[in-house]
Amino acid sequence: xxxxxxxxxxxxxxxxxxxxxxxxxxxxxxxxxxxxxxxxxxxxxxxxxxxxxxxxxxxxxxxxxxxxxxxxxxxxxxxxxxxxxxxxxxxxxxxxxxxxxxxxxxxx
Length: 108
Description:
This protein has three helices and no strands. Helices cover 79% and strands 0% of the residues. Helix 2 packs antiparallel against helix 3. With 108 residues, the chain is mainly α.
Protein backbone atom coordinates (compact mmCIF):
# COMPACT_ATOMS: atom_id res chain seq x y z
CA UNK A 1 0.00 0.00 0.00
CA UNK A 2 1.55 3.25 -1.15
CA UNK A 3 0.56 6.41 0.70
CA UNK A 4 0.88 9.80 -0.95
CA UNK A 5 2.58 11.95 1.68
CA UNK A 6 1.41 15.23 0.14
CA UNK A 7 -2.24 14.15 0.22
CA UNK A 8 -1.86 13.05 3.82
CA UNK A 9 -0.27 16.40 4.76
CA UNK A 10 -3.14 18.29 3.12
CA UNK A 11 -5.73 16.07 4.79
CA UNK A 12 -4.40 16.69 8.30
CA UNK A 13 -3.20 20.27 7.83
CA UNK A 14 -6.30 21.86 9.36
CA UNK A 15 -6.76 19.20 12.07
CA UNK A 16 -3.16 18.98 13.24
CA UNK A 17 -1.08 22.11 12.67
CA UNK A 18 2.57 21.33 12.16
CA UNK A 19 1.85 17.80 10.93
CA UNK A 20 3.60 18.38 7.61
CA UNK A 21 6.79 19.55 9.26
CA UNK A 22 6.61 16.59 11.65
CA UNK A 23 6.33 14.12 8.75
CA UNK A 24 9.31 15.76 7.04
CA UNK A 25 11.34 15.69 10.26
CA UNK A 26 10.44 12.04 10.91
CA UNK A 27 11.43 11.07 7.36
CA UNK A 28 14.79 12.79 7.74
CA UNK A 29 15.29 11.08 11.10
CA UNK A 30 14.63 7.62 9.71
CA UNK A 31 16.91 8.16 6.71
CA UNK A 32 19.61 9.45 9.05
CA UNK A 33 19.27 6.22 11.03
CA UNK A 34 19.56 4.25 7.80
CA UNK A 35 22.71 6.18 6.89
CA UNK A 36 24.12 5.51 10.36
CA UNK A 37 23.49 1.80 9.81
CA UNK A 38 25.34 1.78 6.50
CA UNK A 39 28.30 3.77 7.74
CA UNK A 40 28.67 1.81 10.98
CA UNK A 41 28.36 -1.56 9.26
CA UNK A 42 30.87 -0.76 6.54
CA UNK A 43 33.29 0.92 8.95
CA UNK A 44 33.22 -1.99 11.38
CA UNK A 45 33.49 -4.60 8.65
CA UNK A 46 36.50 -2.96 7.03
CA UNK A 47 38.10 -2.33 10.43
CA UNK A 48 37.87 -6.08 11.09
CA UNK A 49 39.60 -6.65 7.79
CA UNK A 50 42.31 -3.99 8.05
CA UNK A 51 43.25 -4.06 11.74
CA UNK A 52 44.82 -7.56 11.71
CA UNK A 53 46.97 -6.47 8.78
CA UNK A 54 48.25 -3.43 10.71
CA UNK A 55 48.60 -5.06 14.12
CA UNK A 56 50.73 -8.21 14.09
CA UNK A 57 49.37 -9.23 17.50
CA UNK A 58 45.98 -9.99 15.97
CA UNK A 59 45.52 -13.07 13.82
CA UNK A 60 46.03 -11.90 10.23
CA UNK A 61 44.34 -15.00 8.84
CA UNK A 62 41.09 -14.37 10.66
CA UNK A 63 38.22 -13.66 8.30
CA UNK A 64 35.95 -10.72 9.02
CA UNK A 65 32.65 -11.74 10.55
CA UNK A 66 29.23 -10.24 9.90
CA UNK A 67 27.75 -10.53 13.39
CA UNK A 68 29.67 -7.74 15.11
CA UNK A 69 29.17 -5.16 12.34
CA UNK A 70 25.49 -6.06 12.13
CA UNK A 71 24.90 -5.70 15.86
CA UNK A 72 26.84 -2.44 16.10
CA UNK A 73 25.09 -1.02 13.04
CA UNK A 74 21.62 -1.88 14.37
CA UNK A 75 22.46 -0.30 17.72
CA UNK A 76 23.85 2.84 16.10
CA UNK A 77 20.87 3.19 13.76
CA UNK A 78 18.43 2.72 16.65
CA UNK A 79 20.15 5.32 18.83
CA UNK A 80 20.41 7.90 16.04
CA UNK A 81 16.87 7.43 14.75
CA UNK A 82 15.20 7.29 18.16
CA UNK A 83 16.93 10.44 19.43
CA UNK A 84 16.09 12.38 16.30
CA UNK A 85 12.49 11.13 16.31
CA UNK A 86 12.16 12.15 19.96
CA UNK A 87 13.31 15.64 19.00
CA UNK A 88 10.75 15.72 16.18
CA UNK A 89 7.99 14.66 18.55
CA UNK A 90 9.00 17.30 21.08
CA UNK A 91 8.93 20.05 18.44
CA UNK A 92 5.53 18.88 17.20
CA UNK A 93 4.09 18.77 20.72
CA UNK A 94 5.34 22.31 21.35
CA UNK A 95 3.60 23.46 18.15
CA UNK A 96 0.42 21.67 19.23
CA UNK A 97 0.49 23.27 22.69
CA UNK A 98 1.16 26.70 21.18
CA UNK A 99 -1.77 26.27 18.79
CA UNK A 100 -4.06 25.05 21.60
CA UNK A 101 -3.14 28.10 23.69
CA UNK A 102 -3.91 30.42 20.78
CA UNK A 103 -7.23 28.65 20.23
CA UNK A 104 -8.12 29.04 23.90
CA UNK A 105 -7.38 32.78 23.72
CA UNK A 106 -9.67 33.24 20.72
CA UNK A 107 -12.51 31.38 22.45
CA UNK A 108 -12.35 33.56 25.57
